[in-house]
Prior knowledge:
- This protein is an alpha+beta fold.
- It contains seven helices and six strands; from the N terminus they run H-H-H-H-E-E-E-E-E-E-H-H-H.
- The protein folds into two domains: 2-136 and 243-349, no CATH class; 143-232, no CATH class.
Amino acid sequence: MIIERYLLKEMGYTLIGVTLLLLLIFMSGSLVTVLTKAVEGEYSADLLLQLFALKSISNLSGILPLSAFFAVLLAFGRLYQDSEMSAMLTCGIGPKRIFKSVTLIAILVGGLVSVLSLYLTPWAENYEQRLIDVSSTNSSLEGMTAGRFVELGGKHLFYVETIDEDKQKFNNVFYHNRVGKQLSLLSAESAHEYRDDKTASRYLVLNSGYRYEGVAGQPDYKVVKFESHGLRLVTQEVKSSQRDQDALPTSALWGTGKASDIAELQWRISLPLMTVLLLFVGVVLSKTSPRQGRYGRFFIGILIYFVYYNLMLTTRSWLASDKIAPELGMWWVHGIVLMLIIITLVRQNKLPAPKQKIEAPSS
């Protein structure tokens, strides 16, 4: 058990480090996207942390197979480079005990990827879209951006020239609203938000401005000068937008017969299978001599991963467009990888039989 624990520790620590590094790389792109949309007024500031956390959950199901593969390549590559693996084999620790440790971590990581791909990732994608729907429907002044026309609550169109640093005061405000043919335009020097605690209503209070009302194309416009004017910000009923395939729960994909649902379902099942197979690919690929170094076959491993992953993406596209039978689906890709693992293992463990020395009988 000492050897198994040692191998698990080597793979486990490396897996955690690689996962954190890859998650940081992937999430930097997501962070830029979320911040850009927040600056443009599409997302309110209070959603940033939630959206970032949901993006992290969604990305983990795709990061873990790659990080597990790299972890085995790096951990076992170091063991071969430092001749520790040769020492284990010399001491009678055969491939079975080594594969026992790899199988245990494959079950743990594969199970985690299964939970992520089948349950947590669809939930995170759906919840993220729900938050965006609520944010786009509600009248939130936190999404106001200086120098841009922003629609709030589905019926109010605002333009703000400048916003104070604390985002509590808006300067040179323009407001537009249409009810049937009736137009309402307001311009004010400044504005701020007011919340009525008794009724839970929210208002935009405009100061020192003019109100123009009338019907487009007719000259009888009414102009009203005001010192203070309140606009109630109405919260509309949230309307769910069309959900993508990756936001649908796994239970909704079973038995529909739709090509797109079959493709998404097989993709979710394929991710944990890919994780397990890549771990064993890493074991057979990391077998090197000390002269080759720790990274001797690391770049070959990267190439294998990208070929494997792109084959899955291509097959997923074929399934979605009904160009391949669901019975064949993505399983042929995993079958090829499994066969290559078995063939490589047989070749690595196939040693020539020792020659028997025939001694002459003593006289």
